[in-house]
Structure formats: structure tokens, C-alpha cells
Amino acid sequence: RAICWSLENRKLLLSKNPLNKHIIEIMMSKQTNLCVAADLTKTSEIIELVQKIHSFICALKLHIDIIEDFSWDFITSLQTLAQEHKFVLFEDRKFADIGKTMELQLNKGIYKISSWANMVTVHSVAGDATISTFREVVENQNTAMEGCLLIAELSTEGALTRDFYPKETVEFAKKYPNFVGGFICQKRCHDDPSFLYWTPGVNQEQRGDGAGQQWRSIQQAVTQDKNDIIIVGRAITSAQDVKAEAERYATAGWSSLISRSD
Ligand code: 6AU
């Protein structure tokens, strides 16, 4: 039987995974498949950004270690905004070490990521034992963590995430369907509609940043490459009118997603 990729049809399947259940409900109620990458270095800049764009996002992606004035008040403010305006907090930490180190990096240090992030990114390069460590962290009650995304494919020129790599990454994810919500990929890397496919490398105007990043249009990312959620950073955060640009990306992203039949 042909797989039906419409969100309506996938909702039940996606809801088996706690992270995807949370995300799909937000996506459908706010009608957005936009995740904004808030790669800003001051907490006030991030809060100001969120105040402008909250209606248009399903997830806010952070790199907590680039922030120069980190504080717990900042985390509390973000959590309040996330609760009120319905989006998930996504720490793009790209864990890639042995399980024990990953556990410490999730739970300890300055940022105590597992206490506030609903989701994180994990590289598959260290093998699937790291993912089983992740499961233990998620199962701990004192955590905000609902699941993770595995990095199947990077957007940069010359990335080594090619050949067998995305396929083997998918094999790991299949072992932990309750904790792995999906993938960071360039092209949909698996034919299973119970995962979500998140893609960075999206910019409607520019094709590269001169430092290895490769951008393509929303149409390419969603319609041709068949990803579900677009991750957009500088195209929105550096725009003159951030709010209008977030709305433009969200509208174009959503219409590409819902008009896709496969
Ligand atoms: O739109 P940009 O290029 O300003 O930002 C893209 C964001 C950045 C990267 O750290 C991240 O997406 N990213 C990732 C993620 C999400 O894991 C993987 C990747 O292959 N490429 C990429 O740009 O915050």
C-alpha cells in the first residue's frame, strides 16, 4: 500500500513518539513548519527575536554555548514564551562522544541542557550506544527532554555524511523510535512517515555564506527534497523586518508542505 505523507494521515503515526506528538500538534494548530535558528550571542537579542516571531514557529533552535550572558532568568523567560506561544526549545548541541560523556554534557556543566531543552541533535558517528544513553536521560523524570534528532546529513560543502552514512543513521533511529523523532537531513533520508525530516540550509535569496554553508529555496527543500520542517537562521535573523520575513518563510514553508502529495 502506498505511504500517505499528508500530515493528517501521519498524525497518528507521529504521535507514538513523545517529541513528534508535541511538534505535530503545534505544527497543525499554528500551521507552521518553520524552526528558526536563533544564532545570536546576547540573551536580550534572542528574547527580542522570539517576541517578534513566536506566532510563526514550531521550534526555536539555540546554540546555548554561543551566548555571552547566559543566565537562568533567560531560560525561564524562554520557557514562559514557549509555553505561552507554543513552540519547542531545541538545543542544537550535536552530541558526538561516548555515552558517559554525552550524559554529563546533557545533565551537567553550566547549561544543564536536559533540564530545559525539549530536544537536541545527536551525531550518529559514535554508534547507537550513545542513543541508548540518551534514552536513559529522557526517562529520568527531572528532564525537559522529549527526544532527539539524528544528524543523517550535513548541509556543508564536502561533508563526510554521504555514501553509507545516512542509511546507517536511519538503522540506528529504527532501534529507538520512541526517542528519535527524526533526522537532520538535506533530502528525506528514509521512507517512514513516522519520523520528521528537518532540514537546514534554506534561504530564499542567497545560495551560500562563503564559509561552506549551502542554501537552497524552500521549494527545493520541501517539495523536491521532501523535508518536513525547515530550519532557517540568518535569512530571518539578519532581515531588516524580522517579523515580516519569518511570516514569509512560514507561509511559503507551510504551503509547500501541505501541497506535497508524497
Ligand atoms: O540558516 P543559517 O545558515 O543561518 O543557519 C543554519 C542553522 C545553524 C546550523 O548550526 C544548523 O542550522 N545546521 C545543522 C543543524 C540544525 O543541525 C546541520 C547542518 O547540516 N547545517 C546547519 O546549518 O544554526
From TrEMBL:
Residues 33-249 form the Orotidine 5'-phosphate decarboxylase domain. Substrate binds at residues 39, 61, 155, 213, 233-234. Keywords: Decarboxylase, Glycosyltransferase, Lyase, Multifunctional enzyme, Pyrimidine biosynthesis, Transferase. The active site is at 92 (for ompdecase activity), 94 (for ompdecase activity), 97 (for ompdecase activity). Its EC number is 2.4.2.10, 4.1.1.23. Pathway: Pyrimidine metabolism; UMP biosynthesis via de novo pathway; UMP from orotate: step 1/2; Pyrimidine metabolism; UMP biosynthesis via de novo pathway; UMP from orotate: step 2/2. GO terms for molecular function: orotate phosphoribosyltransferase activity; orotidine-5'-phosphate decarboxylase activity. One of its GO terms (biological process) is 'de novo' UMP biosynthetic process. In the C-terminal section; belongs to the OMP decarboxylase family. This is Uridine 5'-monophosphate synthase. The lineage of its organism: Eukaryota, Metazoa, Ecdysozoa, Nematoda, Chromadorea.
